[in-house]
Amino acid sequence: MRIHSEAVWVTWEDVDWPRKEIIVRGDPVTATKNSEIGRVPILPYMEVLLTRLKDKLGTAATGRVMRVSECTLALVRACKEIGIPKLTHHDLRHMFATRCIESGVDIPTVSR
User: Fold this and answer.
1) Residue 41 belongs to a domain
2) Fewer CB near the terminus (10 Å): N or C of the chain?
3) pLDDT of 95 above 70
4) Read out DSSP for 15-74?
5) Rounded CA gap, 69 and 71, in Å?
6) Average of pLDDT values for 65-91?
7) Is residue 2 part of a domain?
8) CA torsion through residues 68, 103, 101, 86, sign
9) How far apart are CA 9 and CA 30, in angstroms?
10) Could you tell me if residue 93 is inside a domain?
11) What is the pLDDT, as a whole number, of residue 69?
């Protein structure tokens, strides 16, 4: 997902637990880059993370999933704290695409 036009707009209501997908609608005004609703598969580690976040929030698990508005600074800080080279949001998008393909998701789906 693109960070400013898609990821920040994902809500808990967009998490389709039975289908293990996140529905990506994008900015309420401008939509996604291609103006289409997308679906991102929830891989096992993502499911663990989302479940942990949801459990932590309890009944407050409504509205936007991402509570951090400035992800770049949070990512820089996290990399520094655990002692790894700096990662960017773009790096994470590539890693996610690679993991999808390794998990058996077909390339046309990943590219969408």
Assistant:
1) yes
2) C
3) yes
4) EETTTTEEEE--BTTTBSTTS--EEEE--HHHHHHHHHHHHHHGGG--SBS---S-HHHH
5) 6
6) 84
7) no
8) positive
9) 11
10) yes
11) 62
Backbone angles phi, psi at 68, to 5 degrees: -90, 125
Domain assignment present for 16? yes
What is the per-residue pLDDT across 12-70, written as a single tens digit (0 to 9) for each? 999 999 999 999 887 777 777 777 788 889 989 889 999 998 998 888 788 888 766 66
The answer to whether the predicted template modeling score (pTM) of the entire model surpasses 0.70 is no
Phi and psi angles of residue 22, each rounded to the nearest 5 degrees, phi first: -110, 125
pLDDT band at 72 (very low <50, low <70, confident <90, very high): confident
CATH number assigned to the domain comprising residue 75 = 1.10.443.10
β partners of residue 15: 22
Tell me how far the alpha carbon of residue 92 is from its chain's centroid.
10
SS3 11: strand
